[in-house]
Design brief:
The protein is an alpha+beta fold and 283 residues long. The chain is built from eight helices and nine strands. The protein has a four-stranded antiparallel sheet with strand order 3-4-5-6. The chain has a three-stranded antiparallel sheet with strand order 7-8-9. Strand 5 and strand 6 form a beta hairpin. Helix 4 runs antiparallel to helix 5 and helix 7 crosses helix 8. The longest helix has 27 residues. The radius of gyration is 37 Å and the shape is elongated. The protein starts with 15 loop residues before the first helix and ends with a helix.
Amino acid sequence: MGSPSGPPFDPDDPDRARRERDTEPIPRIDPDDPAGYGPGPYADADDAGYGGAYAGEGRSGRAWARDPDGFPDQPISEDELAGLRSDASGMAPRRVLPLEDEPSSLVARYLFPTERYRGEWKRHWIHLTTPIIVGVAATFVLGYLSGFLAGRDVGALTTVAVLLWFAVMGWVAWKVADWWYDRFILTNKRVMVVNGIITRQVAMMPLTRVTDMKYEQSPTGRALNYGTFVLESAGQEQALRVIKNLPNPNELYLRVVEEMYEPQAVEARLGKEADEAKADDGA
């Protein structure tokens, strides 16, 4: 008789137990034996590497799929999918705030046909703090002064005080109107700032020329959710650089950065939202 193949038997060989374990035949799991310990034929070559998972269809008529871990495929419920959409802390993924699909008539005139509108923002109401404080103070002071002068029978000074109050209120109204027409605009090609009532000013910067962008928030800005944007450009002359008192600065920052670095993702998301809206309208 010839000698068996392989190295000679050595009882002190430390790798002997591992080799014997690795060369043991893998048993086939019998569907009639849930514990998997019943007698049955060993797995053939086609079943090797699948952890002994049963392939085919058992007496119950249920089909089992091969899986590298030895477990059958199981359908994933909608509740499980909802759990997968959340992170480890239980918070849902970030969602951008909804915006109008079409620009306002104030903004549309400054967009050329081939660029895609991404949104427009008025400055935060904190921008009106000074006019509001001046208007309230003028109302109290001039109102008290008018009453005081009326008791002294000096009608001319009373009239001056009233006219002065109207002038202050006119200035406040002008500031409010200027705030209303002041817009920060984002498209897929540029950022713009449009302001002015009688004399209109339009400043823009191409996204391709923005080399750095940041926003700053003071403690008051963090409490009231507004901030100042600082844009750096590759050129020496910048049409706009510092934009103060913009609302939702974190949201706006992410929108601009996403438009700069992932424009395809923006198009895909907006296209999906449009399809969902059409489907809802059709339903």
